[in-house]
Amino acid sequence: MYSRILVPLDGSSIAESALPYARLLCRAFSSPIELISVNETEITPRSVAQRLRSFNTPQHQVTSEDLSQVVATLTGAACKTTYTLAEGNAANRIVQAAESAPRTLIVICTRGRSGIKRWMLGSVTDKVVRTSTTPVLVVRGNARSEESIKVERVVLPLDGSPLAEQAIPHAAALASALKAKVTTVFVAPPNP
After folding, report:
1. What sign has the CA pseudo-torsion 164, 179, 131, 52?
2. Residue range 114-172, pLDDT digits in tens
3. Nearest residue to 85 (alpha-carbon basis) of 55, 24, 41, 43
4. Which residues touch 119 (CB under 8 Å, ≥6 apart)?
5. Measured between alpha carbons, how far is 152 from 191 in angstroms, rounded to an integer?
6. First-to-final CA distance of the chain
């Protein structure tokens, strides 16, 4: 179903929580994994906030050596893995990378921010979900190993539109790979 699994990493352990899912799906679909890390070069509220935080905390910029270490662990898990280092707006570069090859699945972690923090810092995951034309699997940042993954349900929101129905084969394939049930949620627009 998927010819490639794209996993965005930002050097945090939260982002790396997507790796056990990528490993699992790599085996299930015999798909290679491509890691991508983007050094933000545009000035956005998120990049300014990150720079301000760096005065109090040492920031780690992802290097090719870091990604090579991750590649080694995934290759040892029988998953062909490559990586890309990019510069620019993280969400835009992730979407561009995904759209550069057909049948790519993006597996991305969410930090679970809400409210003012999400508004101030933005959400790369949210922007990727809203702008990508390729399937996106969003996972919580708490997985540490394949054994720790416990997905019981894949939620499939439908609204009766042909666009929403394009998600049906993806939900079915993911549910099969993750040994989960599909829960369909139908959302109808309000009557005028």
Report:
1. positive
2. 555 555 445 888 899 989 999 999 888 776 777 777 788 999 999 989 989 999 999 99
3. 41
4. none
5. 34
6. 40
Tens digits of residue pLDDT in 87-124: 889 899 999 999 999 999 999 998 755 555 555 445 88
CB-CB contact of 88 with 40 (8 Å): yes
Q: Tell me the angle at which helices 124-131 and 90-99 cross, rounded to the nearest 10 degrees.
A: 40
Task: Tell me how far apart the alpha carbons of residues 21 and 29 are, in angstroms, rounded to a whole number.
Answer: 12
CA dihedral (113, 13, 70, 151) in degrees, to 10, reads -60
pLDDT at 94: 95
Length of the chain (residues)? 192
- Three-class secondary structure of residue 20 per DSSP: helix
